[in-house]
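Let us work through a complete example step by step.
Step 1: write down the sequence.
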Amino acid sequence: MPEPTAPRSFWAVARQPRVVGLLVLFLLAAAVCARLGVWQLDRAQQRAELSAQQEAAELEAAGPEGVGVLLPPQSSFPGELVGRQAWVEGEYDPAGQLLVEDRALDGRVGYLVLTPLHVTDDGTQGASWADLSGAPVLPVVRGWVATPEESAALDPPDGVVRLTGYLQASEAAGQGGSAPGLTDAISTGALVNEWGGPMYSGYLVLLTSDPEQPSAADGGPAQLPRPTIEGGTGLNLQNLFYALQWWVFGGFAVLLWVRLVRDEAAGGKRRTRGEDAGIAGLPGA
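Step 2: predict the structure and record it as tokens.
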């Protein structure tokens, strides 16, 4: 009579050459699935960037609209206006100019030049503020500077100016600047207390000015890029779903190997228990 088979543990089964070969095969399959998932994720990112570029090109081609047409004073700022081109006319108030601390441009940390503009025309011929207490104030980010040193080149142009730029939403109120003339946030809620109102709920990132302000080469503020919604336009959901599918398939391949090893180990134990029961049940045992 054959001797009963000794039960085998999970690791005893897993060390068998045949099972190790299966593991290598399943790991290769999992690696392929993981790589395909990364490829789909890259595709999702590329499609999102392409969509953002197309949207920006369409907005550029459409040209600027009056600030008041897009965003009446004291109205809420809709997210789709971020990066939208707009134009406005008015007079700067150099006495209210502030520098916004800790702002980066091209990897360098410096300051944004923030100047209040007393609006004379926002594209509505005054209709947008007809029911308000007076002409509105628009915060204008005129550019970026590396240091907060006073310079005549940072002074805004005198008289009425016509500006074009990109709209951006107001930021949350900060803790205030570290010194007079500095601030840590472009918050219209905080600025209205300093500059007065009424005020627009967003601000303008300057693109062009007529008359022109001094260029960065002449000591003036450096121009900023078109603002975008923080976090981008989002990944393409279809490609993201495909990436998740591939990663699930890769994980399933590894789990399948674990299940096969467990089943084989459990089958050996069942056979051992069956043989023991048969011996114990023999007549005369």
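Step 3: interpret the result. Residues 17-62 form the longest helix (46 residues).
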